[in-house]
């Protein structure tokens, strides 16, 4: 690295005119991480021998699933031509998560930039998240550089998609850059364009310091590492800083930049992006979107746009082995340190024992948390069917917020409201009919439809969140042979005709199976659950009725016929020790049963009945 380049890496020494802050926005799998890797390599911040794929994705799960969950910011020096020769610029690349569950994090990362590279796969074209992220970037007034990626692929159609992209953002198709993150082709030209097209950051160097938090991660050794973008003034080490939303103050122990390992510095000035370490142990004290200022000279007003992360989807998590409960509690406490959006409280279920009701941003968030609990903390868990939050107004005017279907109030219910989302679906036009059919079956309302090109269409729907959190995406994919893409945003709530369906075993409600569903779907839920349980619960010594009920009205019924499984039936003759052994084994098996009233239900039956994956149910059938 040249001395000049080294200087561009030196924080607080770079004037704002020589800084460019940008992010890469793309649909999932369009190659953002690969392009970021190439940029790190080409600018020389990562030596070729240290290079590994997806350098910026640090969490194991991110790497395995190939998705980016937490954003990171890296500073790269880049020499570009300016009017009278060459100058070295400091490029700050802020990596953003790509999934809808993390839209809020994306929008904060965007707010830390002046421009965005809009990356589109040259073999796929624009997808739903391309649009959703583009709209977010436009809301944040970012300059957009349109780029087609993967031009090395034989299936790439750069000309066709350059037109589509140009039509979308209103530029000339010739202005769309063409790169390959894999081979590196066109990446240098892209770096030059970032310098040429994006405006430098603006801010008031003399004003009281203001910096926006766009990410905050928990590190076992260093406590919380907070990523910020300085808007005004300067932050210096050993200052006392204040979080403007909570007024909490902390000593700044260290600050610096990432390139791509942490590099401590003497200060962070206007337009710079870097990290802060204060010794706090919990990311909730350093929240994404909050404004950092100094205690000595606090700023008057925070940078706008802060919002508390709000869980949208809830599910009960229970250890399969009840003695793992304390481990589960500790594990959730640990995950919470690194995940401000995770919310949970203890819950007891008659059927499943002690556990937690956990709030998530969405289904992917749920899956990731569950997978981390099982993998990093070695827990076996049962999770109940995910549900959304219902707001219920009783006839006497009291409001009840329901995060657990089994707590859904009976009696004088006035109005029930459920959350809705605005969904954008992109697909080849031949699938319009199939998509409409699916959305209608999910209580969707068509808001509008536009053709992006001759054969690709964008459809906008309003849908209840409850209908899409479950298996909407899978169904959409299968009905469109994988070609449709989906993105959605919260859009308030609506009044809906919802009922709670209970499942009763021998007259006793099994709380884990209660669900809040639309009135028209109550019967289908009841019969399918009763049918499933009939297959899963072994015969008992007496007849067991399985019923589905709305309040006191039974809507479905199945019977499990009586029989005692006679383990001795194959044992002719008089070998008493063998008989005893078989009876002992039967007793062992019974320990793993849960008793619902007098009915013994094997643990696997719960797991299978609550699982949306039919193969689990198939396996558990006796
Ligand atoms: N042929 C080719 N493949 C590429 C190129 N860029 C990325 N890929 C491949 O496309 C897949 C997705 O790339 P990623 O970089 O992980 O995509 P991403 O957009 O970062 O994905 P998320 O982090 O999940 O949003 C990987 O299998 C890459 O190897 C490219 O320029 N050419």
Automatic annotation (TrEMBL):
Catalytic reaction equation(s): GTP + H2O = GDP + phosphate + H(+)
Classification via SMART domains: EFG_C
EC number of the protein: 3.6.5.n1
InterPro entries in the record: EF-4 (IPR006297), EFG_III/V (IPR035647), EFG_V-like (IPR000640), EFTu-like_2 (IPR004161), G_TR_CS (IPR031157), LepA_C_sf (IPR038363), LepA_CTD (IPR013842), LepA_IV (IPR035654)
NCBIfam families to which the protein is assigned, alphabetical: lepA, small_GTP
Family that this chain belongs to: Belongs to the TRAFAC class translation factor GTPase superfamily. Classic translation factor GTPase family. LepA subfamily. Belongs to the GTP-binding elongation factor family. LepA subfamily.
Protein name per the record: Elongation factor 4
Gene name tied to this protein: lepA
């Amino acid at each position: 690295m040249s001395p000049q380049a080294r200087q561009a890496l030196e924080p607080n020494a770079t004037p704002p005119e020589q800084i460019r802050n940008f992010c890469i926005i793309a649909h999932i799998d369009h190659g953002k991480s690969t392009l970021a890797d190439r940029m790190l390599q080409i600018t020389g911040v990562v030596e070729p021998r240290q290079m590994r794929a997806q350098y910026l994705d640090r969490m194991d799960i991110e790497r395995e699933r190939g998705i980016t969950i937490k954003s990171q910011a890296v500073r790269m020096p880049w020499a570009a031509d300016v009017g009278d020769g060459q100058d070295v610029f400091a490029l700050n690349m802020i990596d953003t998560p790509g999934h809808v569950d993390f839209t809020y994090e994306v929008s904060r990362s965007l707010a830390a930039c002046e421009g965005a590279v809009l990356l589109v796969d040259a073999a796929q074209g624009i997808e739903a998240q391309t649009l959703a992220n583009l709209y977010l970037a436009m809301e944040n007034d970012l300059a957009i550089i349109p780029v087609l990626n993967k031009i090395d692929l034989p299936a790439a159609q750069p000309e066709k998609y350059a037109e589509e992209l140009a039509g979308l953002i209103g530029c000339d198709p010739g202005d769309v850059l063409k790169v390959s993150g894999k081979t590196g082709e066109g990446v240098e030209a892209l770096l030059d364009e970032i310098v040429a097209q994006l405006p430098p950051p603006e801010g008031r160097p003399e004003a009281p310091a203001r910096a926006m938090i766009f990410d905050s991660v928990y590190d076992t050794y260093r406590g919380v590492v907070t990523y910020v973008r300085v808007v005004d003034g300067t932050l210096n080490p050993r200052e006392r800083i204040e979080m403007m939303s909570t007024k909490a103050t902390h000593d700044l122990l260290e600050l610096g930049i990432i390139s791509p390992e942490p590099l401590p510095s003497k200060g962070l000035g206007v337009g710079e992006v870097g990290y802060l370490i204060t010794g706090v142990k919990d990311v909730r004290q350093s929240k994404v979107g909050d404004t950092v200022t100094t205690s000595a000279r606090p700023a008057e007003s925070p940078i706008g746009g802060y919002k508390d992360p709000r869980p949208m989807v809830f599910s009960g998590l229970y250890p399969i082995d009840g003695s793992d409960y304390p481990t589960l509690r500790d594990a959730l406490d640990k995950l919470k340190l690194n995940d401000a959006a995770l919310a949970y409280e203890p819950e007891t279920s008659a059927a499943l024992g002690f556990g937690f009701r956990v709030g998530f941003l969405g289904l992917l968030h749920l899956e990731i948390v569950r997978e981390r609990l099982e993998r990093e903390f070695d827990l076996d868990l049962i999770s109940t069917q995910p549900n959304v939050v219902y707001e219920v107004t009783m006839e006497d005017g009291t409001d009840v917020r329901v995060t657990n279907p089994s707590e859904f109030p009976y009696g004088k219910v006035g109005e029930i409201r459920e959350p809705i989302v605005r969904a954008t679906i992109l697909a080849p036009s031949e699938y319009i009919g199939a998509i409409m059919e699916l959305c209608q079956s999910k209580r969707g309302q068509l808001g509008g439809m536009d053709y992006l090109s001759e054969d690709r269409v964008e459809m906008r729907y309003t849908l209840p969140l409850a209908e899409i959190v479950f298996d909407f995406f899978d169904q959409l994919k299968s009905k469109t042979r994988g070609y449709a893409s989906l993105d959605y945003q919260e859009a308030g709530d609506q009044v809906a005709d919802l009922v709670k369906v209970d499942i009763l075993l021998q007259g006793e409600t099994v709380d884990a199976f209660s669900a809040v569903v639309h009135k028209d779907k109550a019967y289908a839920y009841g019969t399918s659950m009763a049918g499933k349980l009939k297959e899963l619960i072994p015969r008992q010594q007496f007849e067991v009725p399985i019923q589905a009920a709305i309040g006191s009205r039974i809507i479905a019924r199945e019977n499990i016929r009586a029989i005692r499984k006679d383990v001795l039936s194959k044992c002719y003759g008089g070998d008493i020790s063998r008989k005893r052994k078989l009876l002992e084994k039967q007793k062992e098996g019974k320990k793993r049963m849960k008793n619902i009233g007098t009915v013994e239900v094997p643990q696997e039956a719960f797991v299978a009945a609550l699982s949306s994956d039919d193969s689990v149910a198939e396996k558990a059938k006796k």
